[in-house]
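Ticket #4471: structure output looks truncated?

Reporter: J.K.
Steps to reproduce: submitted the chain below (929 residues) through the standard prediction queue, then opened the result file.
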Amino acid sequence: MTLAEPFWLILVIPLALAMWLWKPPSRTMGGLRLAALAAVLLAICGLGIRLPVQSGTVVVVADQSLSMPPGSAAIQRETANLIHSAMGPADRIGVVSFAETAAVEQSPQAGKFGDFSAEVGREASNLADALDLALSLIDKERPGRILVVSDGQWTGRDPSAAVARAAAAGVAIDYRALERSTAGDLAIERIQGPESVLPGESFMITAWVQSPVAESVSYELLKGGQVIARGSQSLVAGTNRLLFRDTAGRQGCGEYSLRVRREGTDPVPGNNTARLLVGVRGARPILCVASRRASGLPALLSKGGLDVESRSAEECVWTLEALGGYSAVVLENVPAKSLGQTGMQNLAAWVTQGGGGLMIAGGRDSYGLGGYCKSPLDPVMPLSMELRREHRKLSLAIVVALDRSGSMAVPVPGGKVKMDLADLATAEVLEMLGPTDQFGCIAVDSIPHEIVPLVEVTDKGPMRSKILRIDSQGGGIFIYEALVAAAKMISSATAGTKHIILFADASDSEEPGDYKSLVAKCAAAGITISVVGLGTEKDCDAELLKDIARRGGGQCLFAQDPHELPRLFAQDTLVIARSAFLEEPVGVRPTAGLLSLTRQPLGDFPQIGGYNLCYARPGVNLAVVSEDEYAAPVVAAWQAGLGRTLCYTGEADGKYTGAMAGWKSAGDFFTSLAHWSAGKSQGLGSGIVATQELRNGVCRVELHLDPDRPSSLFSRLPELTTLSARPGEAAASRKTRMQWSSADRLLAEIPLGSSETVLNTIEAAGSGQVTLAPMCLSYSPEYSPQRPGRAAALERIARATGGCERLNLADIWNDIPKKPQWISLAPYLLIAAVVIFLFEVIERRTSLLSIRWKPLRLPRAAGRALKRVLPARKGRGKPAVDAPPTRSPESAHTTPAESPAVAEKVEGQEMYDALAQARQRAGKRTGRT
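Returned output as attached by the reporter:
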């Protein structure tokens, strides 16, 4: 026996003092009270005992990936419930599901298992994380077992480390195999090619195709969406090889896709198409994206010696594999909507985390007017597109009418609803205004609700708080009511520019009423109206919204993604302020910072025909500024994470190029800016080679070091920055510190998901940085062809931990080993204390324990009286007939006149008096009268 909390033994002192101060009335009650206090004290101190007990915890690990057969979830649910029904009162059962991730479906303290509800993805089998999570659910003080219900396929991290931890903890891993049928599955087992090649180099692509029977199949090999090989092939039953030859083009990344088809249906079509990425080593080209095909900037850059690839915004695919083929991107007067929200997110991540370069040239479709304010590219740019009062000719009054109908309560990715993003967009408009501007806000469903009255923007805090609390109230938005309320509110404005922003659902805008006459009256009063529609231009109410904006003299902007709303609201505000682009020719002058960009003097600069009015952020290299009253930046650059960003606010080639078009040094100027954006050639120095390979769904990045390297090669361990993205999704970034795998190698492992592309950049302090070629899986590992005996992996895991294939589920409780477990005696001690206390109450009221366990002791006078009354007996109780009668001294004084009857009466009275005295003392002791 041991005490879990021996500190509380200090309570012995006050308890002993209490017993001494308030002594019990009898020894019996004292013993009872002492026993009760001792039981309570030991319970507080956590008295316990270790006993071998055969009860423990079973955790069911259920595979929810795509490789599992149909109906496997129901079998796994039934498995958990059968184990639950066979367990004892002290046993526990938990459930863990896994696929791409692992999650606890039911903790061991819960009861009967319900159903699987955790979001774990389905396109991977992360068994290692599932086993680690299951081990964490088993108390170290209790025995346990793990039951894996899976097909035996695992991806990502090798589970051997988790298996070793389970074996060390004495936790056996059982398994129950559920395998998908392999009948009739035509599958590409794998496709292989070189990780990277040189420009113009020929190379082979090899594909292994598994066929269940001898048959003829057709195939297509595509490169960048274009078919480069097509034909048919007779296959034998088993594994077949297909060979293809190709020649590497210019620097960048080649994306290949192989498709095989058969006559009839295939039970697993997901493994009939496989992807392959092949990088092309060497200097990567610069992508120049212009708003019009006639732009001369790409030719100017090519003439300056740069490798330039020119495309329109519509031709660009802003994926990681596409961006990985370029050293820099030049956006020439391209509006943000041409890139899209996801495209801008990927471009920003590629610059900051992938080491890419970005150069933005101005124009009326760029910067603030082009919608870059509050966009994902805004934080990457060295210039701010804010509104400043001193640079605007007129004050501004804006009223925002927000749709808060039922459609605004629809959730969007990120844990918000549409209304939340509309609130944030309205708050962004408020933040852009100055203290002399005016602002008002109305929320509209079937009737308008004033949120913020039209007031000067002097205290933004309370106004912003009210805006962010707007929520959807159901119903639909009445367009006419919204316009009437907004027009009435802004009619009292004193600002020089009066503007209404109407936000509505493009597919749920009701009751337009006579909006045409109302908008005409607003136009006559100098009030402009813009519309931001949530949806697309093809939605049912889109034409109504566009007509309102056209008649109101404003813009009509559509956002299919609600996350774009803050950008669109900010773009409209900048347009209405009418100071985002200056159309008059202006002189410019270089600063000392220009030489760090061009590496050569360029002489005097000519005038430019106009520029986007922006402001330099702290810490930027301000290379060229305007010579007007604003002294605004014309060329600004900075380091953005691992990459570089440069902004030229003039128009490179167009209406507002001005005298810059005829400047003799224009080619050197723009070429130098683009060359600086692309950055210097990447490399890690001599004696360091970086490689990467795919192995079982994991991208292994290794640094191979020269054994004769200097000891101070790295000031710290190299860091790997990984950009990962799926088609149509924004890129995510994560950093991994590389670790030593041997004396001359460093390693980092990156698990890959299905259809996921990763772009790895190694940054070694003191040795430079390098971006590796993009990598991807051929297809989801869950679609890989299954071979007989795949459950052998589960068998090896079970054998390593002392487990077995679990056929009879109820027997799993019998196989839990007996293990000394800590059993707390506190509950039993507290029950004993309560029982003892009850006995003390009984003793106090009845003296039952004193009568039962102690002899009756009468007062001395009563004893003497009884001796005189009861006849003296000797031996076995016979009277002594030979003994002469004796007389007591008292009887010597008895007169003959006293009769024996009178003497007997006196002696009997004495006995009764003695008994009465004894009863009175007992009453005082027990408290009874």
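Triage note (M.O.): checked the attachment and the full token line is present. Residues 2-52+823-853 form one domain.
Status: closed, working as intended.
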